[in-house]
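Section 5.1 Outputs to date
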Amino acid sequence: MSVNDAARTDDLRELVLSVPALLGCHPTRSLIVVGCSPAASAPVVLRADLFDDERLSAAVYALVDAAARAKLDHAHVVIVEDVGADIDRPPRPHVIKGMRALFAGHGINLWRALWASSTQPGGLVLSYDDHLYRAVLPAAPEAPPVVAAHADTAALLAGADPVAVRRRDALLNQLVTLPNKRSFADMLALVEHAVRAPDEIADDHRFVALAEALSDHGVRDACLAFTAGEHAEHAERLWHRLVRGLPAPERAEPAVLLAIFAYLRDDRALAHLAASAATQAVEQHQLARWVLDVIHLGVPADQLRAVCHQAADEARRQYGQSR
């Protein structure tokens, strides 16, 4: 079963159980769209905060526009909001009615519309389409196919060699007490050289030197320039190699770069996993959290690419002149 087939499931609980894996968290007060595109290898997942009705309209339009840009052929909507278990009908039916009409205007079929009090075990699930449907999420569910496929993608980011990662961690810990004497230009040149031959990075000291360079946010931001041109693919391979070969917290910086590069080539599943990996390595990682917002809102790739170019230019001007 393909990932897109899994997202077309008739098991309503399975759809709700898939949401945390696709988002990387258990959402609260959320309006979520899970959809499929013939061109995508994984479900497209969009999310917005569930505001009061006066503010929700803009979020609904933004999600539907994002779904249209993603070229979805069908979508599911899940509202997650804990209003208590003593209810017979799911709340906010007008939101679903409005989204169904907006989706239809873009040629997108709204297949399932669900409400869940929570995506945690014991959460209540109701259907907007079948008022007799009432289910409780199991305590120890079997992973739905879409979650299993998500796990397969996640395995791509797992440490390639745990022993080597521990060695590099020890080397990085030694560097904490030593001042970094490399200039901005030297560190950026180090990364640029690695981008030209990412598969040749194997030595522990090169991993450590690259980790040290990317820990400088000016260098990291300057690397966003690689999103354009012939080096984009090589740069993404380098970030991937560093994510798999570095310990936390150092893996956070290549992980967030990997997330951005993957998103720009429309691999949203890998982008989400990489951004989530960055927040796991550094919980309050501001850029990674911003990238997750970009993914959830379905920001057009052209807009993100323009922001990347601006950030790279600014980093080279500011840091290149001051160091």
